[in-house]
Amino acid sequence: MQVTADQHLLKDLNRMAIVRQLSAWPGQSRAGLAEVLQLTKSTVSGLVKELIAEGWLLEREVVATGELGRRPTPLFVDPGRLVLLGAELSADGVSVVATSLTGDVLARARSPLEADLAPEPALRRTAKLLQQVHARLDVPGQRVIGIGVGLPGAVDEARGHLHFAHNLGWHDLAVGPQLTEHLRGTALQAAPLFVQNEADVAALGELEFGLDSAPDPLIYLSLGLGVGAGVVVEDRLLTGARGLAGEVGHMTLAIDGPRCSCGRRGCAEALIGLRALHGQSADAVATAGRYLGMLLSNLASAYDPGRIVLGGPAIERGASFLDPALRTLDQFAAAAGVAPPAVTLSRFGADAVPVGAAALARYRLTRPLITARRLAAAA
Residue 8 — very low, low, confident or very high, per pLDDT cuts 50/70/90? Predict the structure, then answer.
């Protein structure tokens, strides 16, 4: 009997629904999964058997309690056999990590980039670093199922195309196709590759690998040379019509303020990015912090987020930068008569983007319908 494309998609949807359910609520039984996902027990049993054989899931022995009857066998996402690779490409260099399906870092490597390095050799170096990290995996049978890449600029993910990365001096670059070509003929050539903005992937890291259920909407604010935001609403990454959503570093916070890398004046990046903080006095850092608070307030007004997560090297300035920001956010919220959103720091620290890039691969692989619709829209 011929199986149609729709049947393949339906099966994949059900398989990945099981994986996502066990990611959020580990330890459920086959019968429990059938009930919550509204599938037949035989369908769940067949899919679980496949997922265990492929390395997605594992089952654990039930601890004897002395009670009569057969207890359901708990199921979990397997952290050992399937691997994700994530890369961050920034003005500081390339960082690559290998993670488990549950976000544990298994290996990492970093390579600096020369300030004037052209895109082609930089992407070639990224491909080599991905191969080096893959070679460090020391568990027999481990298999890379996806690769994610985070870039400091606006990205059309469906085409793997970088619109611009001002701090790299790159424009209109087919990053995805070029990296795929550099990996051709290697052990990684069969792994699907996904490319997205660095703040977007860091937001997905908080969503996919968070220790608790992600609040909604979730915003990740990246504070480095550039300033960007990744926004997740109802489990969907908000990227915009052209992949330009989240470029909050180019929101104007001060008319006739300092010139930004984009050519305009008074952008958030020019006021709170690393260049604005470098070598500044305590008063200047506090002023930058207040501008950060203004940006946080604007994001709170625009998205009403359940949580804003801060990450990036600028947060290493600590309390002298962050305390004025939080006070300003509280003052704006009090003036409007609303509660400010929760603001936390990324749990992944300096690895937020490469781990998030690995999470991008898991996000796309476990949501086949969303991915299929994006690819169809780009066709």
Answer: confident
Residue 217 has pLDDT above 50, yes or no: yes
What CATH number has the domain bearing residue 52?
Answer: 1.10.10.10
133, with CB counted inside 10 A (0-12, 13-18, 19+), is buried
What does residue 206 show for φ and ψ, rounded to 5 degrees?
A: -65, -35
Q: Is residue 206 in some structural domain? A: no
Tell me the two tokens of residue 119: 């895109």
Strands 161-165 and 154-156: antiparallel
Determine the distance from the C-alpha atom of residue 237 to the mean position of all C-alpha atoms in its chain, rounded to a whole number. 9
* Cα within 13 Å of Cα(112), Cβ side: 3
Lowest mean pLDDT among 116-120, 184-188, 260-264: 116-120
Q: What is the mean pLDDT of residues 353-368?
A: 96
For 259, which DSSP code? B
- Give yes or no: residues 285 and 335 share one domain: yes
Q: Quick count: other Cβ atoms within 10 Å of Cβ 122? A: 18
**Domain coverage including residue 299:** 212-346
Task: Say if residue 117 is in the same domain as residue 183.
Answer: yes
Record the tokens describing residue 122, joined without a space. Answer: 């930089």
**Which value, to the nearest 10 degrees, does the dihedral of the CA atoms of residues 84, 36, 214, 375 take?**
50
Domain-located, residue 207:
no
Is the separation of the CB atoms in 329 and 238 below 8 Å?
A: no
Query: Is residue 166 within 8 Å of residue 261, measured between CB atoms?
Result: yes
pTM: 0.91
Task: Specify the residue for token string 């469906």.
Answer: 158
